[in-house]
Amino acid sequence: MTLSIHLTRDLEQFARACVDTGRYDSMSAVVREGLKLLREVEDRRRSVIEAAAGAVQGAEEPVEERVEDGAVGAEPPDAVPDADPRDPF
Length: 89
Prior knowledge:
mainly alpha; 0% strand; 3 helices
């Protein structure tokens, strides 16, 4: 596939330097590598957004449901709800 792109002078110089030093075989190889890295960044970004959305959605769950699950407002296991408040022990 043939594609024509326009780069800023700075990016073109950088890409040429990558080729001139032997790091990459061609300008196309430099652009391909850049796009692969951009894809990785975008995939990670999407994962973070999805995880944050899931956390927010979980926080919006009605309190009653979270209490039933023991997540919010549940009494500690050692609590004695019917204890006599006058009893020191």
